[in-house]
Design goal:
Blueprint lengths: L2 H24 L5 H9 L7 H12 L3 H16 L4 H25 L15 H20 L4 H21 L5 H21 L11
Helix pairs in contact: 1-8, 3-7, 4-5, 4-6, 5-6, 5-8, 6-7, 6-8, 7-8
Pfam family, one: PAP2
Organism: Amycolatopsis japonica
Keywords: Membrane, Transmembrane, Transmembrane helix
């Protein structure tokens, strides 16, 4: 293992430790910041702001990883020299997406309001964050000049997706923060071990 790969792996482990620690700390009782935001947006899901947020989360949600997966298939089909890269990116995408499916039963946290499914972490935010993470890797390996733009778009989409879930009253703030920690942790570890990190000419 190279030093750079080890550093990325260590960073990923630390993020996962943060994810688990946060989940355990909020499992029984939401912290004041969660309660304050939940109270501030109470019943917004029935109002215009909530309706807009609902429309946004139809796009910034579980559909995104499937869309990116389809893009990776097309790229691999049209560019055979990128097939291995696309397969590795698909593995990272799948592992990151699984974080919410695996973690929710482990923490069994309830939503701010009555709503199906469990709360920690947010599946929608996980979907947006993992799509953004893999999209950044894709750009870094194939179109380096677009990497900074991809990072900006991924970060903005993740924040917007998280805000919409909070406005809808279906997630606590810490649910969305946990989603980012989980995706970051799994993403860094899996990308490092698959040889996607460090990036080409990465100064790390």
């Amino acid at each position: 293992m190279t030093l750079q790969r080890g550093l990325y792996t260590l960073a990923g482990i630390l993020l996962l430790v943060g994810f688990v620690t946060l989940g355990l700390s909020v499992d029984e009782r939401p912290p004041p910041v969660d309660v304050a935001l939940a109270d501030a947006f109470r019943d917004q899901h029935t109002r215009p702001a909530g309706q807009v947020a609902g429309l946004v989360t139809h796009v910034l949600g579980p559909v995104l990883p499937f869309a990116l997966g389809a893009v990776l298939v097309v790229i691999a089909w049209r560019r055979r020299d990128l097939t291995v890269l696309c397969v590795k990116l698909a593995v990272v995408l799948l592992l990151c997406r699984l974080t919410s499916l695996i973690a929710k039963p482990a923490f069994y946290r309830e939503r701010p309001r009555e709503f199906p499914d469990l709360s920690y972490p947010s599946g929608h935010v996980v979907a947006v964050a993992c799509t953004g993470f893999v999209a950044v890797l894709l750009c870094a390996w194939t179109r380096p000049r677009l990497a900074r733009l991809a990072i900006t778009i991924a970060a903005a989409a993740t924040v917007l997706g998280a805000l919409c879930r909070i406005v809808l009253g279906v997630h606590w703030l810490t649910d969305t923060a946990g989603s980012v920690l989980a995706v970051g942790g799994v993403g860094l570890i899996s990308a490092a071990w698959l040889g996607l990190l460090p990036l080409p000419k990465d100064p790390a």
